[in-house]
Amino acid sequence: MSTPPPSADPVLSWHPPRLFFSARVGGRVRKVPLDAGFSCPNRDGTLSRAGCSFCNAEGSGTGLYAQGLGLAAQWAALLPRVLVKDPRARLLAYLQAYSNTHTSPERLRAVLDEVAVLPGVAGLCLGTRPDCLDLGAGEARLDVLGAFVGRGLPFIQLDLGLQSADDAVLARAGRGHDAACFAEAVRAAAARGLCVCAHLLHGLPGARPDDLARSVDFLNTLPVAAVKFHNLLICRGTALARLWEAGRFVPAGREDYAAALIEALERLRPDICVQRLIADPAPGELLAPAWTVDKYGALDCVRREMVRRNTWQGRLGFCPEGSPDWTLYYKEDG
Ligand code: SF4
User: Fold this and answer.
1) Do you find a cis peptide bond into 87, omega within 30 degrees of 0?
2) Which whole number is the average pLDDT over 186-190?
3) How far is the CA of 40 from the centre of ligand 1 (A)?
4) Which ligand 1 atom sits closest to the C-alpha of 129?
5) What is the pLDDT at residue 11?
6) Is the CB of residue 274 less than 8 Å from the CB of residue 226?
7) Which residues contact 8 (CB under 8 A, 6 or more apart)?
């Protein structure tokens, strides 16, 4: 059970990034998770059936599409729960599970047509893999996404998994793409007005202790607008779970993660908005590490260590004299 958050703190908080989204959609945001019934090339046999070593196929989606609920019905069902928390929030549709461009350009266009007319929708966040965008082959699916920017969907964020910039780590995790593919996807997406949010994962097997910071160095060279940091979770049914159960892998402890995260933040370009600091396990999927259940405790650990070190985002290489606003990387959304 998570402990309640400490009182408002000028250095760390854990709300979504307020100024980032305010500048783009005109206010605080709430995301509404939608399931368009897509799969993943790393699961359906296109690339592999094994999936990434850390991925829990069961925990990824809502399953509402498979239950016969279309996007409009899902939106209508979920909206009251979202609005009761924040009636004035701007609403973002969130196609989160699996690879939401793993389909034909025509089907992707049809899905976006549906999303664009959802009542009150202010934008879209869409998770996918960099190798599901027709790079080097006409980039048709990127063109479909780009065509919706400013046409019904003023804001589209592409949530792109990188996890690590180390190709050996990616290969060992069974990702099925390399860092160069990610870089090409980011450049092509940004050129179409899509806002790219990169996902990084700390502590994969074979990763060096400074893998997260090195991955941030890589992101700094790209037109990335945002990043989500994740600590590695051992989830039921995954290849990593089998390794962990066999005693052949131990996930990072809380203090180790905090240290790696802070080093990465210190090296992160100040304009890149941090949208997540700690991973959220789906209910029932977590095997280890136990500390991740107490998200607020983990965030407080990061906060206290940042205060102790008197440090901030971009301190190393970008703003060594101090950030004009320590809350810079919390461009928060309440
Ligand atoms: S993490 Fe993403 S890309 Fe990897 S198997 Fe799971 S859904 Fe597919």
Assistant:
1) no
2) 98
3) 6
4) 3
5) 40
6) yes
7) none
Ligand 1 nearest atom to the CA of residue 54, by list position = 1
Q: Atom 7 of ligand 1 has which residue's CA nearest to it?
A: 98
Q: What is the spatial distance between Cα 25 and Cα 16, in angstroms, rounded to a whole number?
A: 14
Q: For residue 214, give the nearest of 259, 179, 164 by alpha carbon.
A: 164
Distance 286 CA to ligand 1 centre (A): 17
Q: Is 151 helix (H, G, I), strand (E, B) or coil?
A: coil
Q: Which protein residue has the closest C-alpha to ligand 1 atom 2?
A: 98
Which of 60, 160, 169 has most ligand 1 atoms within 8 Å of CB, for mutation? 60
Band of pLDDT at residue 59, cut at 50, 70 and 90: low
Give the residue extent of every domain in the chain.
18-311
φ, ψ at 153 (rounded to 5°): -125, 90
Q: Show the ligand 1 pocket: residues with CB < 6 angstroms.
A: 40, 42-43, 51-52, 55, 60, 98-99, 129, 161
Average pLDDT on 71-81 reads 95
- The fold adopted by the segment(s) 18-311 is pyruvate-formate lyase- activating enzyme (3.80.30)
CA distance 180 to 199: 15
What pLDDT is recorded for position 201?
98
Q: How far apart are the C-alpha atoms of 252 and 204, rounded to whole Å?
A: 9
Q: Which two tokens stand for residue 204?
A: 């994969």
The pLDDT of residue 5: 38
